[in-house]
């Protein structure tokens, strides 16, 4: 390197002409040069600081000035430290590369020829040059000059990139000053700086954006890989130093850019330069291969230009697609910026206003609203809900900050829905939808729902009420009409309130449990739930999930159905009970029938013996046989009556007497237990129409049961028998203070064979029969019981007048002259009848063979004929028909004694023939009554 040495040659070279001249090489010297002109030696003086100072040089007299300068340049460039030679006026004469790097940031020689204060200080970290006046450059330069001229040692110089130097100035022997610099940057700072530089380089290279850095003259300094990917082609490589304009022009000429038609690439390149210099910020660049780049330029602090290129091909494609979609949407869409100016709007949106999108965009929001309103009014499309003021208000509301969707109904029938939504960047999206067809469809649907007999309710996804038809409102809110929800009300809260006010029959559940049950039923879509209301209504409901996540509930009123089902169930139960009883009755009737004849004989003859025995003991025994057999006969009849399901005889009976009889029968067991029996009978001696014995049996059953119930209580056991005549009814209560009957078995105790007693103790037919007997008397038998407190059985029967005197009538006369034909295949019975009638004064002809009897009847006219019905040789009806054929007069006086009242053959015969009859077992009085009626009958 060399500087301007013109002024130095004559003066200073003369001055050193007398200096020493060395032709040998000092072996202690570190650096030596020798050429044909002479030699120059540089010796280290301060090796420890690695500072090499040109201490001396010797120039042979024959050495010319040029050669000396060349030698000096060589010497300068050879040293690692920075070296600068300045003349007396502090103009640079010679600097080596190291010095140029520090002082001028690597500038070329032309830059540093000149005064020392030409050093550009922008690379320097100037804080150590602080002057009292601050950091002004003038002051700094003055400082630097002073430091050099005063040969200051160890001046600290610090560059912005972190490197640190020490500089020392010295008078040069040839005149002027020598300034040397030594780098003293701490090692780690250097490495860190290097690392930072490398990282920066890597980061810039890794960027997805193309980066190109141009200097202030717009020549390329640096570029990253992405930039070269964007623009470089074979044979078109970026080189540092290339001008922006040249690069641009070249790319344009190569067809790299897509230029507008007719634009000259040269002109375009110049325009690009101008744009960058003028600081044009963003531009879109289209490349011929279809890519789209977004270019931005920035001025650097150093006066250069940074150009950044971003590939937005994909983004542009998405944007275009989005724009296309929005443009073709059937709804009106617009975007409003934060200042409420329209930035975008699609065709559908501008059609709502009836003006072009561009025109629309130029309007302020208030103008837009007014414009829409004017337009609507001009088209007579004003909203009909209280137009025009409220219409304007509703549109305003649609544009309000509240983001509430607003539905407008226009006069022409159109429905418009206006909605708003905000973007994260503070813009507002406006959407206007023509919902007319939707509305119409919805109205049709709602009409259809309204016409349904079934109730239906629609809820949204948060279980808020949307719609419910009238049928639902009627079913669900009868008596609580004020609780019908409004649109948007929470269905769950509504339900909770209804529960709290006791609207539902919760079947013993607590409010909370019921709510839980309801919620769980509703959450099981499609499942049917039976809901009961406190007012007795029943509904069946099911919930279904809608496609939008809400719920659709269907409810059906099943109150009537429930009633019918309950009735049906009751009927079924009754039929079931009847079937059971009938089966039982038939069985018992069979047994009873077999007992009839022997019992008739026992009873009949015991009756005949009565009063004929003088021995009081025997007489008493006969009485006992008579009573017992009569009782047995009556029981048999009761069974038969039950099997027939009707009372045997219906006559006025004194209720108090019936009860006394019943108490008598059961008194023995009660007494032996010490049970207290309270008898509280109505003093008016009430009567009922019925069968005395059957009713006595009912009450005796009830008293025996009561006795069982208090059995374990001993003397604490108490039974109350009470009769009352009230309102045309006689009520008989039989109460005990036993253990009572648990609620769950109460309905079952009237079932045949239901018993809680041990085998041998209970049969379970007592109450079933009692119930049956009472019902056949058109009465009721009910029970009321509390466990631990006892039970009360109540019989209610219709009261009747006491006309027994009338019915009893006068004593029947049995004239001895009357003849009677008795026909019965069983001899014992035939004989009994004969004996009874003979004793009563009749003349009796007895026959055990119906054929023979027919002959007798044919031959003789009798006052009466008494025949058995079920005879092996001939049944009663055949006998009667034959008799009518051979002896019609005798037939007209025929009566029957039957032991088979159950068979349909028998009942049908009696119904059609209208023949009088009595049932076995035979009772004397009945027999005589029958005879009386026959003899009287025949006379008519
Ligand atoms: P049985 O007495 O043979 O069991 P019933 O038909 O008379 O048959 O009674 C049926 C059931 O009704 C009895 O087993 C008993 O459980 C209940 N019951 C009847 N009367 C009473 C009563 N007074 N107190 C408690 N339980 C009763």
Description:
The protein has 30 helices and 34 strands. The strands form 7 sheets. Strands 23, 24, 25, 26, 27, 28 and 29 form a 7-stranded mixed beta sheet that branches. It has a 5-stranded antiparallel beta sheet with strand order 4-3-7-6-5. A 5-stranded antiparallel beta sheet has the order 9-8-12-11-10. By secondary structure, it is of the alpha+beta class. Helix 8 packs antiparallel against helix 9 (265-277), helix 17 (491-500) runs antiparallel to helix 18 and helix 19 runs antiparallel to helix 20 (616-644). A hairpin with a 5-residue loop joins strand 8 and strand 9. The model is unreliable at 1-62, 130-135, 380-390 and 803-812 (pLDDT under 50). The termini are far apart. The structure holds adenosine-5'-diphosphate.
Question: What features would you highlight for this structure?
Answer:
30 helices; rod-shaped; binds adenosine-5'-diphosphate; alpha+beta; disordered N terminus; seven-stranded mixed sheet; five-stranded antiparallel sheet; 940 residues
């Amino acid at each position: 390197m060399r500087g301007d040495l013109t002024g130095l040659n004559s003066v200073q070279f003369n001055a050193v002409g007398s200096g020493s001249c060395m032709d040998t090489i000092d072996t202690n010297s570190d650096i030596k040069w020798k050429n044909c002109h002479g030699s120059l030696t540089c010796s280290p003086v301060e090796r420890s600081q690695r500072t090499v100072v040109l201490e001396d040089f010797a120039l042979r007299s024959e050495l010319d000035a040029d050669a000396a300068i060349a030698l000096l340049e060589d010497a300068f460039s050879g040293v690692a430290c920075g070296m600068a030679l300045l003349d007396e006026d502090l103009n640079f004469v010679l600097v080596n590369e190291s010095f140029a790097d520090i002082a001028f940031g690597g500038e070329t020689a032309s830059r540093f020829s000149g005064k020392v204060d030409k050093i550009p200080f922008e690379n320097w970290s100037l804080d150590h040059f602080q002057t009292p006046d601050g950091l002004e450059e003038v002051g700094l330069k003055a400082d630097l000059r002073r430091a050099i001229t005063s040969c200051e040692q160890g001046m600290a110089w610090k560059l912005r990139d972190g490197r640190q130097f020490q500089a020392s100035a010295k008078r040069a022997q040839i005149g002027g000053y020598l300034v040397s610099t030594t780098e003293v940057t701490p090692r780690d700072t250097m490495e860190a700086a290097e690392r930072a530089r490398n990282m920066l380089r890597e980061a810039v290279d890794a960027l997805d954006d193309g980066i190109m850095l141009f200097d202030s003259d717009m020549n390329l300094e640096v570029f990253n890989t992405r930039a070269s990917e964007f623009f470089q082609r074979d044979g078109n490589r970026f080189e540092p130093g290339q001008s922006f304009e040249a690069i641009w022009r070249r790319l344009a000429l190569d067809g790299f850019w897509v230029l507008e038609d007719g634009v000259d690439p040269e002109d375009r390149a110049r325009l690009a330069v101008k744009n960058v210099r003028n600081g044009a910020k963003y531009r879109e660049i289209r490349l011929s291969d279809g890519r789209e780049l977004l270019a931005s330029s920035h001025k650097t602090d150093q006066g250069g230009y940074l150009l950044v290129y971003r590939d937005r091909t994909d983004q542009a494609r998405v944007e275009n697609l989005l724009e296309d979609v929005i443009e073709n949407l059937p709804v009106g869409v617009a975007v409003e910026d934060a200042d409420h100016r329209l930035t975008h709007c699609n065709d559908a949106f501008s059609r709502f206003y009836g003006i072009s999108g561009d025109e629309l965009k130029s309007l302020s929001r208030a103008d837009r609203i007014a414009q829409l309103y004017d337009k609507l009014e001009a088209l007579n499309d004003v909203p009909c809900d209280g137009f025009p003021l409220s219409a304007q208000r509703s549109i305003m509301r649609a544009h309000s900050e509240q983001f509430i969707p607003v539905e407008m109904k226009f006069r022409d029938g159109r429905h418009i829905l206006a909605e708003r939504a905000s973007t994260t960047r503070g813009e507002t999206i406006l959407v206007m939808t023509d919902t007319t067809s939707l509305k119409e469809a919805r109205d049709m649907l709602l009409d259809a729902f309204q016409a349904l007999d079934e109730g239906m309710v629609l809820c949204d996804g948060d279980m808020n009420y949307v719609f419910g038809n009238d049928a639902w409102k009627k079913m669900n809110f009868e008596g609580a009409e004020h609780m019908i929800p409004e649109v948007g009300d929470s269905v769950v809260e509504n339900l909770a309130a209804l529960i709290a006010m006791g609207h539902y029959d919760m079947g013993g559940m607590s409010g909370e449990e019921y709510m839980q049950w309801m919620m769980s039923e509703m959450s099981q879509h499609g499942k049917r739930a039976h809901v009961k209301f406190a007012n007795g209504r029943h509904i069946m409901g099911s919930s279904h999930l809608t496609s939008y996540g809400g719920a659709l509930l269907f409810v059906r009123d099943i109150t009537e159905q429930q009633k019918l089902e309950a009735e049906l169930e009751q009927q079924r139960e009754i039929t079931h009970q009847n079937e059971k009883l009938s089966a039982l009755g038939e069985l018992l009737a069979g047994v009873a029938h077999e007992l009839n004849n022997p019992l008739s004989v026992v009873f009949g003859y015991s009756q005949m013996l009565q009063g004929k025995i003088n021995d009081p003991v025997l007489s008493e025994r006969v009485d006992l046989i008579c009573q017992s057999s009569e009782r047995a006969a009556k029981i048999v009849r009761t069974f038969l009556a039950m099997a027939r399901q009707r009372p045997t005889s219906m006559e006025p009976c004194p209720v108090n007497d019936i009860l006394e009889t019943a108490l008598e029968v059961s008194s023995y067991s009660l007494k032996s237990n010490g049970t207290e029996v309270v008898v509280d009978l109505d003093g008016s001696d009430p009567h009922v129409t019925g069968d005395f014995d059957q009713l006595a049996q009912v009450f005796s059953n009830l008293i025996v049961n009561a006795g069982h119930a208090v059995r374990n209580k001993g003397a604490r056991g108490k039974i109350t028998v009470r009769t009352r005549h009230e309102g045309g009814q006689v009520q008989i209560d039989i109460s005990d203070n036993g253990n009572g009957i648990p609620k769950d078995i109460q309905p079952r105790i009237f079932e045949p064979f239901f018993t809680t007693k041990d085998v041998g103790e209970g049969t379970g037919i007592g109450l079933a029969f009692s119930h049956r007997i009472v019902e056949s008397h058109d009465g009721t038998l009910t029970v009321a019981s509390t466990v631990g407190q006892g039970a009360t059985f109540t019989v209610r029967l219709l009261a009747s007048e006491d006309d027994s005197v009338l019915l009893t009538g006068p004593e029947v006369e049995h004239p001895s002259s009357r003849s009677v034909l008795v026909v019965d295949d069983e001899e014992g019975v035939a004989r009994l009848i004969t004996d009874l009638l003979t004793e009563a004064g009749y003349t009796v002809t007895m026959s055990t063979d119906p054929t023979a009897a027919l002959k007798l009847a044919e031959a003789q006219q009798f006052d009466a004929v008494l025949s058995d019905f079920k005879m092996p040789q001939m049944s009663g009806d055949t006998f009667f028909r034959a008799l009518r054929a051979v002896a019609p007069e005798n037939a007209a006086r025929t009566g029957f004694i039957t032991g088979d009242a159950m068979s349909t053959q028998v009942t049908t015969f009696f119904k059609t023939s209208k023949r009088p009859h009595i049932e076995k077992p035979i009772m004397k009085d009945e027999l005589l009554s029958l005879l009386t009626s026959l003899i009287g009958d025949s006379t008519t």
